[in-house]
Specification:
The protein is mainly alpha-helical and about 425 residues long. The protein folds into two domains: about 200 residues, no CATH class; about 140 residues, no CATH class. Helices cover about 65% and strands about 5% of the residues. The strands form three sheets. Strands 1-4 form a two-stranded antiparallel sheet. A hairpin with a 2-residue loop joins strand 5 and strand 6. The radius of gyration is 21 Å and the shape is globular.
């Protein structure tokens, strides 16, 4: 029994290590035939074993071992739970439809990742991590990622000096495909830090800073004076780094988070009606994100080629839904089906998922799979009122999903999604 307790503590320690390394993307890539489109390797289709994957595996194995050793009827009660039955039906359905997709290899790889992150979410709930430790580790991530972002912005290139081991890619502001912005006639690099894109860095900073500010507001007594100073400093430099990412979606989410934090602090908690209102806002925003590009495409020209490209991907997603409305085109097969819809492709930069997690899920799994996703989200929202964070971070996470895809397509985004969803599920004690 003592040994089992040690295993659980080790799993918890590995989870804290996972939070610390969440911003990194060190991994081993496997360039398999199914990861190519028209002979060109596509990042989103390349199977990758990340260092964080190894941590996830160890965490899940440790928690499973502890449960099997300490609860004789663990497996029986687990299998008979409504949540398990619901998830089993959902993942079985998605696997069955994916086996009928054009690119089965890419679909199965994505399915395996879904299983991995579902198990991780379950393990986090079982561990019930110390929220103070989680916030401090997020503060460390915000602090160091911001410093790396400052260095990249100042130099106009990647920093190097061993940061490759944390996932920093080698690039210059002039490297083709690297994102930049212009100000006062000069061209500046949008910093990546150790993330695959400045938008992902922006999303991580926006959500993490809101979480840190929430902790400094409501859990201030838990932190020592020096810890409060460090978290405050992390928030300040994080906000500057967030500004440099020029990620408008992350800016919007951050401003919205600050506003909701203000409302919550005045009323001591968000009003109960917030869940209903936020669900309505998410629903209306989802419809708007579809209808505006489809029926008012001229509005996209105001944002230049970047927004036109997003509108094109959204149009492609609606076409896939119309062609296969019930079962979709299969997991990870959105990109695979793009060439058949976009015949005048001038650049392979267009080969990226639609920048809306809801449309991506709808196009790849159909209305049936999308309903499973919505039911799961609704159940999570109901749990959020009794969690320590409440519905705030979950709402911001789902709102961010209206503007980009990385929360369900890239390793760091997926880890961030699972972390927030799991902490939202855990009941406050």
């Amino acid at each position: 029994m003592v040994y089992n307790g040690v295993v659980m503590r080790m799993a918890a320690s590995l989870f804290y290590l996972l939070v610390l390394f969440l911003p990194t993307q060190l991994g081993l890539h496997f360039f398999l035939p199914f990861s190519q489109i028209e002979g060109v390797p596509i990042d989103y289709l390349i199977p990758t074993l990340y260092f964080t994957d190894l941590l996830v595996i160890c965490i899940v194995v440790g928690v499973l071992y502890h449960k099997f050793c300490t609860q004789k009827k663990f497996l029986t009660s687990f299998i008979q739970s409504k949540s398990f039955v619901f998830l089993l039906v959902g993942v079985t359905y998605v696997l069955a439809t994916s086996l009928m997709s054009v690119n089965v290899g890419a679909a199965v790889y994505k399915w395996v990742k879904i299983i991995e992150f579902l198990l991780l979410g379950w393990a986090i709930v079982q561990i019930r991590p110390n929220i103070k430790t989680v916030l401090l580790l997020l503060g460390v991530g915000v602090f160091f990622e911001s410093l790396i972002a400052f260095g990249q912005f100042y130099l106009g290139r990647s920093i190097g000096f061993g940061l490759w081991w944390l996932g920093e890619r080698s690039f210059y502001a002039s490297t083709p495909g690297i994102t930049t912005f212009s100000y006062d006639g000069a061209l500046y690099l949008r910093p990546y830090a150790t993330f695959p894109h400045p938008n992902v860095l922006g999303g991580f900073l926006a959500l993490s800073i809101v979480a840190l500010l929430w902790g400094l507001t409501y859990l201030k007594k838990l932190f020592e004076k020096n810890e409060q100073i460090f978290l405050t400093l992390s928030c300040v430099i994080g906000m500057v780094a967030l500004l440099l990412t020029v990620s408008r979606a992350a800016w919007i989410v951050f401003i919205l988070g600050i506003f909701l934090l203000g409302v919550e602090s005045m009323k001591r908690r968000l009003p109960p009606v917030f869940i209903s209102v936020s669900l309505w806002i998410l629903g209306m925003s989802f419809l708007s994100s579809i209808l505006i590009p489809l029926f008012f495409p001229q509005l996209l020209t105001m944002g230049g080629n970047h927004w036109m490209e997003r509108g094109t991907l959204l149009w492609a997603a609606t076409q896939m839904v119309s062609l296969s409305p019930f079962i979709g085109v299969g997991l990870n097969n959105f990109l695979v089906n793009l060439p058949s819809l976009l015949t005048n492709i001038s650049s392979y930069s267009i080969f990226q998922p639609v920048h809306n997690i809801y449309m991506l899920i709808l196009s790849e799994t159909g209305f049936i799979g999308f309903c499973f996703f919505l039911i799961a989200l609704y159940g999570l929202y109901q749990k959020s009122n009794r969690s320590i964070f409440g519905p705030l971070l979950l709402f911001l996470l789902l709102f961010l999903g209206l503007f980009d895809h990385y929360l369900i397509t890239l390793q760091q985004g997926q880890l961030l999604f699972v972390l927030i969803a799991s902490l939202t599920y855990i009941k406050k004690t």
